[in-house]
Amino acid sequence: MQQTIGKYRWTICGLIFFATTINYLDRAVISLLKKTLTGEFHWTETDYGNIVIAFQLSYAIGLLGAGRLIDKLGTKIGYALATGLWSVAAIAHALAKSTLGFGMARSALGVTEAGNFPAAIKATAEWFPKKERAFATGIFNSGTNIGAILAPLTVPFIAKQFGWEAAFIITGAIGFIWLILWFRYYEVPARHKKISREEFDYIHSDKDEILEDPANTDTRKVSWIKLLGLRQTWAFALGKFLTDPVWWFYLFWLPDFLDKEYHLESTDVALPLALVYTLASLGSVLGGWLPMKLVNNNWTVLRARRTSMFIYALCVLPVVFAQWLGAMNMWLAVIIIGLAAAAHQAWSANIFTTVSDMFPKKAVGSVTGIGGMFGALGGVIIARVAPKLFEHYKAAGHEQQGYFIMFLICGFAYLVAWVLMYLLTAKAKKAAV
Fold this sequence. Notes:
The protein has 433 residues and is an all-alpha fold. The chain contains 19 helices and no strands. The protein has one domain: MFS general substrate transporter like domains (Growth Hormone, Chain: A, Up-down Bundle), CATH 1.20.1250.20. Helices cover 80% and strands 0% of the residues. The mean pLDDT is 86.
């Protein structure tokens, strides 16, 4: 069937996967160098939290504008612009000479990295029919985990051998390699010379998308006010607000948790982190595969998506006991956190796909940006709450209690999000914009 239809769309998926890997590699560097940079610049927990907040606030603002800009410029130019600018911002960290300098560099990285997911989801909507989008999203979204795996395997080594500045320069420069490949291989299906007629027809086979502009030339602005007045927009935004912060917490505080609980430093954290993010990568792909399998078994897209997301929400719950079980054996904690990370990525592959399920392609970038902004704002709250909790309980002589509370929040966030999304989209229909 693949030979009859053609499979160039999976080449596009590979390009998006590569970009997403770079995106997360660049943002993960600072968490692995936290101890080194704390000694260099005399940071407190609050200083580090403020630097994380600088990234997340800028990321939130950037998402709102990036989605609109990518809908206007188109995926090819918009994605290239975002990647080129975030690569420059990543390298600029090496020039920072103070805490303020790091905050400015993180802000620049946040604004520019915001372009990745609106562009990636829009490209997926352009190149895949609905039944394959969650699977394709799961594949490219697994790049977040590959980036998080590569970071602990490479960043501490580079920093040890060549200095912390080199870690930012080398990882940041990889984005320019991707730009060459992007301009060589990407175009929308209607203008691409390597796509067959059969594959083009297959991509545009969804009945409710037959009348959409296949060349993606409709760049008329969709009003934010109109989008914010739709229940579908709020379902996605609230789902992201409640669950994205969990991933931010793992990304920026998991190395610190392993250091505090098990005294793992520098290269010692590489193997536990690699295991967590390997499990997360598998979860991302399987999370996209399950709804596709259900749709192929004659489930509706809506039923398959909701059922899959409910299963993933349940799979996160054991993380509540991660710290307690980890007191017996570190690897129990690592595996439980890895399961939660896998479930998050499976959830993420599907929540992103709900945008292209519910909105026409011309609005996908804007809605993804709005939801991403809410997710980043949730991350800001986590970045403010977590350090305060840790410092409070450390002063009280119960430092471990702070992490228990954070894992409790992480465990129940998805069930709450699922219920709210269900209520808001109970009468599901495609948004008229």
